[in-house]
Every structure is written in C-alpha cells, then in structure tokens.
Amino acid sequence: MKLSTKGRYGLRALIDLAQYSEETPVSITSISARQELSERYLEQLMSMLKKAGLVKSVRGAGGGYVLAKDMAEISIGDVLRALEGSLEPVECAGLEPDGGCKASDNCVTKYVWQRINESISQTVDEIMLDQLVEESRKKSCVGMDRALCKN
Amino acid sequence: MKLSTKGRYGLRALIDLAQYSEETPVSITSISARQELSERYLEQLMSMLKKAGLVKSVRGAGGGYVLAKDMAEISIGDVLRALEGSLEPVECAGLEPDGGCKASDNCVTKYVWQRINESISQTVDEIMLDQLVEESRKKSCVGMDRALCKN
DNA sequence: GGTAAATCCTAGTAAAATACTAGGAGATTA
DNA sequence: TAATCTCCTAGTATTTTACTAGGATTTACC
User: Are A48 and A10 spatial neighbours (Cβ–Cβ below 8 Å)?
Assistant: First the structure.
C-alpha cells in the first residue's frame, strides 16, 4: 500500500510547475534542478500528466509545460491516478456496477476493498492543486532539503 | 497503492478461521483446502497474525489456530497492518509528533499523505472481523470460485 | 514408545515491478 | 545553423513479491 516515486515525485513536480508556469512554460530542466529529480525520469512523469490532460506542452527552445486547466480544477486524485494508475487497493474493488471480479456477489472481502477505495477517492478528490500551491507559497519552500526528504 | 497477496489472502484466511474455530483449533491444512491457498505460504501469514497477537496457536496433532481475542475486537486495520506493515501511503506521513521526515515542516505534500493515511486508517479500523464473518455466513460462501477470484 | 499430525523457523529463488538510464528523432526559437 | 526543448522507445540494475523447500519441534492417540 505504498505510493511509488511516480506519484511522489510527480505531485511535487506539478506543484512546482503550477508555481512557475504562470507567465511562461516551465522546462523539465528547471523543475528537475529545483526539485533535484532526474531529468530523464521526470520527462516520463510529465508525459503521463500530459496524456491525462493535466498539462500541455510547448515544444522547441523556450518551451516546456503549462497547466492544461486551472489549478483549482485539478484534484490530487487526478494527479495521482494519472501517475499511479488506479488507486484501488485491490483490482476487483471497482465501483462500476458490473466491474471487476465475477465472483463478487459471494465475496466478503470485496466490501472492505470497496470501503477503502471510497475513502481514498473521497480524500484525494477533495484536495485541489491550488490549495497545495498556496500552502507552498506560504511556506516559501521552493526547494526543500532533498538529503532529508525523498518524497 | 495495491494490497499484496499477504493482506488479501491473510484476511480471507482469518475470516475462515473465525468461522471454524469456535470449538476446536483450525489447522492450516483445512484453511488452505477451503480457501485454495498454498499451505506453506499460509503458514507464514498465520505466523504474522500470531506475532501481532491476533491468533493463538495450538501445537501438535489436532492443533491449529484460534482467535486470540473476540471477533468483535479485531479490526480489519489490525489484520492488514499485521500482514502488510504500515498502511501509510508514504513513509514520512507518520502521525507521531516527531515521526518521519526531518524536512516535514517545509513539506507540502506531507499534508496529502497524512490525509490519505487518516482516511484509510479510519476506514479499516471501524470495520470489525465479526461483521465480515456474519456477512460471510449470510452469503453461505464457504468456498468461492478461486478460478474467478484471486482476492 | 512410535507414528502421524500439527506448528515453527530459516533460506532460497523465480518472476514481476520499480526506478531509473540511454539514445536519438523531431520541433522551435534566436 | 546552433541551441534548447519535447517526444518516444528500449534497456537494465535493483528491489519486492510470492512463493517453495527442508527440516526441527511439539503433541495426541494407539
């Protein structure tokens, strides 16, 4: 039940992007410098965020990435699902009426997985990116000590 | 953010155990036969549940496992934490005052990890084993089709 | 006392997932 | 034309997962 580096790094990167992309696109190079992340790896994370429609890219010199919609309209759930795939703790727990496991009517544990799934979803979907960006500005923590924190 | 087979199989096994251990201890052999799980693997899961104080063992012929406390006093959180370790999505998110990451005061994402952690904990700690056992009896699903469901 | 049925304990190991690195093609600007 | 970007695919070392294997120990029952 751990989030991978994709989710952890990717969310940090997106908060950074949101802070710096108001006027011009932000390049992977600059994000990775500030956040001390591998450029090549970050490239892949940004590509996932783009596929999910959360950021837009501007190619060529002076290019980079920009948010594809307003910060207040991007939930942390959107971000984490884009990076981690489904956040369901067990595959069968899909909420779709006919989703997942065929044996589900006889499955007692499914109830548990579903409850966990719902609580995670509710939590991550009600936190929006702008809240974190604002918080980040308050703390003026543009860069944090990566030697102490890997998240 | 997936639960491993430890958590999935282990919870199933414990529900099975709870149902069958009211009079005599239940052996790993019998649980694994009903639930179609490897005996050797299940052995390790039971050992974890024992270390966590959720079950007691009775050695020797005719032995097996019994719940160490009342079903109504074992939460699913206890079970999953015994099997999966901490359910925190990110290590630093510990709720302990001085727990985890040293950079936490400057960490914006920690807020997110903590919120997720709290919601998961709350959910799994309020579901008790007896609820699932009762549900299981209602559905009379002693054995479900393992060809269809791996959870 | 012997045998069968159990738990207990440690190690090993194949497969899958993770966390990257590497190389190079294509787009855009100055 | 050179520099700076994104884009895309593939490779790969490390770690984790999901087991399997072997054997010691304990206990009930004949």
Answer: yes
Q: Which of the nucleotides lies closest to A30 (Cα–C1')?
A: D5
β-strand partners of B26: B65
Of B89, B103, B123, the CB nearest to A115: B123
- Rounded to a whole number, what is the distance in Å from the CA of A140 to chain B's nearest CA? 8
User: pLDDT (tens digit, 9 = 90+) per residue, A78-116?
Assistant: 999 999 999 999 987 554 444 456 666 678 999 999 999
Structure tokens belonging to residue B108: 């914006």
What are the tens digits of pLDDT across the range B16-44? 999 999 999 999 999 999 999 999 999 99
Q: pLDDT band at residue B95, thresholds of 50, 70 and 90?
A: very low
Residues in A closer than 8 angstroms to B110, CB to CB, are 151
Distance measured from the CA of protein residue A69 to the C1' of nucleotide C12, in angstroms: 52
Q: Hey, are the CB atoms on A149 and B87 less than 8 Å from each other?
A: no
CA distance B134 to B16: 11
Kindly report the number of other CB atoms within 10 A of residue B54's CB atom: 24
* Joined tokens for residue A51: 């596929």
With residue B99 as reference, give the H or E element that holds it: none
Residues 16-75 of A with CB under 8 A from B: none
Distance of residue A100 Cα from the nearest chain B Cα, in angstroms? 9
Closest nt by CA–C1' to A9:
C19
DSSP chain A: ----HHHHHHHHHHHHHHHH-SSS-B-HHHHHHHHT--HHHHHHHHHHHHHTTSEEEE-STT-EEEESS-GGG-BHHHHHHHHHS---SSGGG--STT-S-GGGGG-SHHHHHHHHHHHHHHHHHH-BHHHHHHHHHHTT-SS--TTT---
A51-to-A41, A54, A88, A125, B40 alpha-carbon distances in Å: 16, 8, 20, 19, 43
